[in-house]
């Protein structure tokens, strides 16, 4: 359905992903943001809180109100887990398409959601019809979805890195290792001790080694790609940068040397607008995708000849969150998938 203006609401407009949605949507040719919510900043103009939006957005924040949100064509939830699932049923009943950046609609099984997020799902029926918003895997289903569960940031980088290998059945699915690093904006804009400059700068640390909530999400996605159970070790690290995810992914080849891995990756992503496969032997870096919706990938074989090492980088706030959400929005409304999303990364 192609419309000249699509009315958009953003719930959680004061967070990092909400602000990034605004940055993208204010220059989108068909989307018009008509409602922006915040409980703490209600009444304040968005361009007062975010001076980078001066001249681009004159809206004021207002408290989240489902009835008012029902006047939108699409609503993005850039809120903590547990919020979207409370409001989505009324919106969907009113014909509003929902794109949730939290984990509320990412899991097929509400028991897995409960185990990792500690919440009973508020609308399991809607969860059952929600589509996981990774366009490179689910494009056709996203087009017709009423609710999209936008993937997490680490899961986006990891799944896109492993996808060609698992689809082709080339690697041992029991011994996958994802060694990942994230910038601090991944932790959100809320003030927290662990996100303070003096706690993060000039240091690097792993966290969540005993079980991070992105592990079950990645396992769910990789299992679907492989068509069988997989075994994954996933270790996230916090690094002193603002944006960016770097995933170093390991897998054991069933038949070393049997396949041209570079050709496999190039073929799989040839028609993907936002996946860029580097030339053989190259090393992507996070600053090369900063501010862009690109996932940049390089595939290597270790000197042992049988270990594949894939490097996958994204901007956590763009392809890892708000950019991917707009990519899904474009698909849902029958638009060119790249609208609002094509701009060169910011570098240096
Ligand atoms: N940061 C990242 O890199 C990524 C984040 N995500 C996910 O996106 C979501 C948003 O993340 P992020 O922008 O970093 O978070 P922030 O903490 O920066 O922002 C959260 C926003 O949600 C609003 N909010 C909080 N609680 C509620 C509530 N109960 N009802 C309505 N609004 C609420 C806040 O405003 P107020 O309190 O004023 O209402 C604020 O605007 C999270 O689920 C996160 O896990 C996903 C991928 C990457
Ligand atoms: C650096 C940092 O703290 N990153 C966050 C993940 C990013 C995120 O927001 O999680 P979702 O993608 O599931 O929404 C974390 O590890 O919890």
From TrEMBL:
SMART domains the record matches: Semialdhyde_dh (SM00859)
Keyword NADP part of the UniProt annotation: yes
Keywords: Amino-acid biosynthesis, Arginine biosynthesis, Cytoplasm, NADP, Oxidoreductase
CDD domains cross-referenced by the UniProt entry: AGPR_1_C (cd23934), AGPR_1_N (cd17895)
GO MF: N-acetyl-gamma-glutamyl-phosphate reductase activity; NAD binding; NADP+ binding
Residue positions of the active site: 153
One GO term of the biological process aspect: L-arginine biosynthetic process
EC category: oxidoreductase
The protein's Enzyme Commission number: 1.2.1.38
Record field: catalytic activity: N-acetyl-L-glutamate 5-semialdehyde + phosphate + NADP(+) = N-acetyl-L-glutamyl 5-phosphate + NADPH + H(+)
Gene3D superfamilies: Dihydrodipicolinate Reductase, domain 2 (3.30.360.10), NAD(P)-binding Rossmann-like Domain (3.40.50.720)
SUPFAM superfamilies linked to this entry: Glyceraldehyde-3-phosphate dehydrogenase-like, C-terminal domain, NAD(P)-binding Rossmann-fold domains
Main location per the UniProt record: cytoplasm
Domain Semialdehyde dehydrogenase NAD-binding as annotated: residue spans: 7-145
Cell compartment(s), UniProt: Cytoplasm
GO cellular component, one term: cytoplasm
Highest taxon of the lineage: Bacteria
Pathway membership: Amino-acid biosynthesis; L-arginine biosynthesis; N(2)-acetyl-L-ornithine from L-glutamate: step 3/4
The keyword Amino-acid biosynthesis is annotated on this UniProt entry: yes
Pfam family name, one: Semialdhyde_dhC_1
Job of this protein: Catalyzes the NADPH-dependent reduction of N-acetyl-5-glutamyl phosphate to yield N-acetyl-L-glutamate 5-semialdehyde.
Record-linked HAMAP family: ArgC_type1
Protein name in the entry: N-acetyl-gamma-glutamyl-phosphate reductase
Source organism phylogeny: Bacteria, Pseudomonadati, Pseudomonadota, Gammaproteobacteria, Nevskiales
């Amino acid at each position: 359905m192609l419309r000249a203006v699509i009315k958009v609401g953003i719930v959680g407009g004061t967070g990092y992903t909400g602000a990034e949605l605004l940055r993208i949507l204010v220059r989108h040719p068909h989307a018009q943001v008509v409602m922006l919510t915040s409980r703490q900043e209600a009444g304040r103009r968005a361009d007062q809180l975010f001076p980078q939006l001066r001249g681009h957005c004159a809206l004021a924040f207002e408290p989240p109100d489902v009835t008012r949100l029902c006047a939108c064509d699409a609503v993005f939830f850039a809120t903590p887990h547990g919020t979207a699932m409370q409001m989505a049923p009324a919106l969907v009943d009113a014909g509003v398409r929902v794109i949730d950046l939290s984990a509320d609609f990412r899991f097929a099984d509400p028991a897995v959601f409960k185990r990792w997020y500690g919440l009973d799902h508020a609308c399991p029926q809607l969860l059952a019809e929600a589509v996981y918003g990774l366009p490179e895997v689910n494009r056709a289903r996203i087009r017709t979805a009423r609710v999209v569960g936008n993937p997490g940031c680490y899961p986006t980088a990891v799944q896109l890195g492993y996808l060609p290998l698992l689809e082709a059945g080339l690697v041992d699915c029991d011994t996958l290792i994802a060694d990942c690093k994230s910038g601090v904006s991944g932790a959100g804009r809320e003030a927290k001790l662990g996100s303070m400059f003096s706690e993060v700068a000039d240091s690097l640390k792993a966290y969540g080694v005993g079980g991070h909530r992105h592990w079950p999400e990645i396992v769910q996605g990789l299992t679907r790609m492989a068509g069988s159970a997989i075994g994954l070790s996933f270790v996230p690290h916090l690094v002193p940068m603002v944006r960016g995810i770097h995933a170093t992914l390991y897998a054991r080849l069933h038949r070393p040397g049997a396949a041209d891995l570079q050709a496999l990756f190039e073929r799989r992503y040839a028609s993907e607008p936002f996946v860029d496969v580097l030339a053989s032997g190259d090393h992507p870096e996070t600053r090369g995708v900063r501010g862009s919706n690109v996932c940049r990938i390089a595939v290597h074989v270790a000197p042992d000849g049988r270990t594949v090492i894939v490097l996958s980088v994204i901007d956590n706030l763009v392809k890892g969150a708000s950019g991917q959400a707009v990519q899904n929005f474009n698909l849902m409304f029958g638009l060119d998938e790249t609208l609002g999303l094509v701009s060169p990364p910011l570098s240096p």
